[in-house]
Write a structure and sequence with these properties.
Largest sheet: 4 strands, antiparallel
Number of helices: 4
Distance between the termini: 80 Å
Shape: elongated
Structural class: alpha+beta
Strand order of the largest sheet: 1-2-5-6
Order of helices and strands: HHEEEEEEHHE
Length: 113
């Protein structure tokens, strides 16, 4: 009986730890919450240095959209345990480019004719 009670207490403790790890997962990994769109939380990795080069992250058929450096892995869109880098979230249609441009340093380049 005592062993069963001990296992019960340990199980509850493990569940609580798992919940807390899920809640604070992004902060532990060095990300800061910067916004929310339709229950998707937007995170930015803090204090990271990135290679100086334009990184194309999305093309809508007219314009190509870029980050100012190679940094798409520093911008995450997350809901529960589903997590996408910014370029993946755009491709999957989770957020729109207009929404993304409100929170992330994205700019567009319109080709000249």
């Amino acid at each position: 009986m005592k062993r069963r009670k001990t296992l019960y207490i340990i199980s509850i403790f493990v569940i609580i730890l798992a919940i807390l790890a899920g809640i604070f997962n992004m902060q532990i990994r060095g990300y800061k919450k910067i916004g929310e769109i339709d229950n998707w939380y937007l995170y930015e990795k803090q204090n990271e240095v990135c290679a100086t080069a334009l990184e194309p992250i999305y093309n809508d058929g007219t314009n190509t959209y870029y980050l100012p450096c190679i940094s798409s892995q520093f911008y995450v869109v997350k809901n529960g345990f589903k997590e996408y880098y910014i370029n993946e979230a755009l491709e999957e249609g989770i957020i729109t480019i207009d929404e993304a441009m409100l929170y992330f340093p994205i700019f567009s380049w319109e080709p000249s004719e």
